[in-house]
Amino acid sequence: MKVTKTLLTAITSGKHVEITEDNFDAVLGAACVIATAFKDIVQCLVVFAVDHARTNDNDFTYLTKIMNQLVVEKYGDAIRTATLQSYLEYVVTGARWFEQTKQGDKQYKFAKRSKKAKISYNMKALAKPWYLFDNAGKAKAVKLSLKHKLELAMKQWLEAEADKSGKYELVDKADNDVLLVELNELLQSHS
């Protein structure tokens, strides 16, 4: 059975559609069409919100509204909100999501990471839909970077301990040990 406009209208209007062997394929096709359309509509909203922020002195009102509507109002169950959050932080560099609680309700706010943070917009990344954003590669790069930093810190520590010429300045051993433990824990959490 072919996906028809009547079937799509019935499903999206909330009318009960009885599923039978005869219409199963059509209802499944309609569900796929609706899911894709939903993700594409969210992408259009994101593009508008990012462009609004870019042209209105970093006004993140619309980005905040999107996330609050999707996550707080539970419409986000249909989408990967963590992916959307990561995507927006990648597109709008220098900003991040803050979780707030107002009168017992969880709210999200998109804002600068810090007062001194510089905001930039990755418009090239915005051309790719949020639902195709893959931050797994980014996590791997962070892991490699942390591993490199840990190895470098260990190498510098060993060189400093071995060198008695004063070429290397030793930090307090207790502080350095704490730093190495923290780096190692961070590395483990990204594996």
Structure explained in plain terms:
This protein is mainly α. It folds into 2 domains: 39-134, no CATH class; 138-189. 58% of the residues lie in helices and 10% in strands. The chain has helices at residues 5-12, 24-55, 61-72, 81-91, 123-126, 136-162, 173-189, and strands at residues 92-93, 95-102, 105-112, 120-121. The strands form 2 sheets. It has a two-stranded antiparallel ribbon. Helix 1 crosses helix 2 and helix 6 packs antiparallel against helix 7 (173-189). It is elongated, with a radius of gyration of 24 Å. The mean pLDDT is 75.
Note the topology.
Blueprint: H1 5-12, H2 24-55, H3 61-72, H4 81-91, E1 92-93, E2 95-102, E3 105-112, E4 120-121, H5 123-126, H6 136-162, H7 173-189
Helix pairs in contact: 1-2, 2-3, 6-7
- Strand content of the residues, in percent? 5-15%
Average residue-wise pLDDT: 75
Total number of domains? 2
Provide the spatial order of strands within the biggest beta sheet.
1-4
- Output the radius of gyration: 24 Å
SS class: mainly alpha
- Distance linking N and C termini: 47 Å
Please report the total strand number as a whole number: 4
- Extract low-pLDDT stretches: none
Question: How many helical stretches?
Answer: 7
Helix content range of the residues, please? Answer: 55-70%
Output the helix-strand order: HHHHEEEEHHH
Shape assignment: elongated
Biggest sheet features:
2 strands, antiparallel
Write a brief caption for the model.
With 191 residues, this protein is mainly α.
Could you name the key traits of this structure?
two-stranded antiparallel ribbon, single chain, mainly alpha, 10% strand, 4 strands, two-stranded antiparallel sheet, 191 residues
